[in-house]
Design a protein that fits this description.
There is one protein chain. The chain is an alpha/beta fold. It is about 45% helix and about 15% strand. The strands form three sheets. A six-stranded mixed β-sheet has the order 1-11-10-9-12-13, sandwiched between helices. It starts with a strand and ends in a 14-residue tail after the last helix. The mean pLDDT is about 95.
């Protein structure tokens, strides 16, 4: 078995990470020192925004009333799908208790975090869908307060459709803030809020680095990079659809990788021939982004077998993975490293990006090897508890004392000794040799 690359990327997203990390670190330090005044200065200098940061309820109501009925219906329908899927995820995890040994009961409680910061990007595009992907999912998990942020749109207020989506998805507070200053404000609890327990939502490389730097102080969803797409296709695939789906994700940005893993060289060559024309036909903003992404980050590889193709895909561990092949059940069972899987040519990534239900906040940069996309689980803490009867404590204390002394932890052992002495005086249980050093 062999893999033959017809096109290799000339760059990787890591090429610009260090600069972004340095900028984010400097901004976070300045905001920690200067608070809201520094944030307002960044908002004015970087986004041209000099208005109120907290969006008042009356403004939200006015914006909602101005949106055409069909647009409201479309956004509401997408929100309903995402909410329905997230609620089903929540129902799939449960509280439980079990007697693990006689007299020893242990259990789990699924407790939501209290406050979530949801970042909704607005830059090259107005990311309406990102609003409900984060906010709906947090609310389905039972999060009490969701504080949402989005950047001023081209120097003005938040894009009206993004604002409507944030509101309808259930945001409790909405801030007109973008970039590193938004992430830092959410983490620090600025502008009348409280510090977020978890910050979620996609963003540019500066937002991603800000989240990385603040991780530990707050939880985050994923270490996100530029959007990625991978398509696995055999000779039964339609090259026009495959090419369109690669371009469809490449328009995200100049650094968005698009990968094709083909089981047929003729198909691969047909797709490569079609991609430039599809890019050329795009509007200027999308054309500029997709052209750079395909030129610098696009890859095409031809594999001899589906086993080799699956292995190559798992090494990529792509954010979005489409399969345009026969025997979709085999691929669904074999593939293991991806953010979200789209099976069959009827199932484009764009459906998942916008409205089909599963979350579109997904791991990139091969993080799908060890993590999954945003879900209600990110906002839930599986807290464990245990309760032991006196009879149950007898055996546990004996085992605990001996293991503790084998580890050299005498104080641990004595907590067990004490309980045996109190409840079972005169016992003759072997408790290990006391630690002398």
């Amino acid at each position: 078995m062999a893999a033959n690359w017809l096109k290799r990327a000339s760059r990787t997203p890591a090429s610009t990470e260090e600069t972004a990390r340095q900028v984010a670190a400097e901004m976070i330090a300045a905001i920690e020192a200067g608070g809201e005044a520094v944030v307002r200065d960044y908002a004015k200098r970087l986004d041209g925004w000099n208005g109120e940061i907290l969006v008042p309820a009356e403004e939200i109501a006015q914006v909602a009333a101005s949106i055409p009925a069909q647009v409201r219906q479309d956004i509401d329908a997408a929100i309903a799908n995402v909410r329905r899927f997230a609620e089903a995820q929540r129902e799939s995890v449960r509280d439980f208790q079990i007697e693990v040994a006689p007299g020893v009961t242990a259990g789990q409680r699924m407790v939501p975090v209290d406050c979530v910061g949801a970042y909704v990007p607005t830059g090259r595009y107005a990311h309406i869908a990102s609003a409900y992907m984060s906010i709906c999912t947090a609310k389905a998990a039972g999060v009490r307060q969701v504080i949402a942020c989005s950047a001023p749109y081209r120097g003005g207020p938040i894009h009206p459709l993004v604002l409507y989506a944030m509101h309808r998805a259930g945001a409790d507070r909405i801030l007109t803030l973008g970039g590193v200053q938004a992430i830092a404000s959410l983490a620090l609890g600025l502008f009348g809020g409280r510090p977020a327990d978890v910050i979620v939502g996609p963003g540019n490389k500066f937002v991603a680095e800000a989240k990385r730097l603040l991780f530990g102080r707050v939880g985050i969803d994923v270490f996100a990079g530029p959007s990625e797409v991978c398509v696995i296709a055999d000779r039964s695939a339609d090259p026009e659809i495959v090419a369109a789906d690669l371009v469809g994700q490449a328009e995200h940005g100049h650094e968005s990788p698009a990968w094709l893993i083909s089981l047929d060289q003729a198909l691969a060559e047909a797709v490569m021939a079609r991609v430039p024309a599809l890019i050329a036909a795009l509007p200027p903003t999308a054309r500029d982004a997709a052209a750079a992404a395909w030129r610098d980050y696009g890859e095409v590889v031809v594999c001899d077998s589906r086993e080799e193709a699956a292995a190559v895909s798992d090494r990529y561990a792509p954010e979005h993975l489409e399969v345009h092949c026969a025997d979709l059940a085999w691929w669904r069972g074999r593939l293991v490293n991806y953010g979200s899987l789209f099976l069959g040519e009827e199932t484009t990534v764009a459906f998942g990006d916008k409205c089909s239900g599963p979350n579109h906040v997904l791991p990139t940069k091969a993080a799908a090897r060890y993590s999954a996309g945003l879900s209600v689980h990110k906002f839930l803490k599986p807290l464990t508890w245990q309760q032991v009867t006196r009879e149950g404590a007898k055996h546990l204390a004996e085992v605990t004392a001996r293991i503790s002394r084998l580890e050299g932890m005498e104080a641990h052992a004595r907590t067990a000794d004490l309980r045996l002495a109190k409840w079972f005086p005169g016992h003759n249980l072997p408790l290990g040799t006391p630690v002398e050093v």
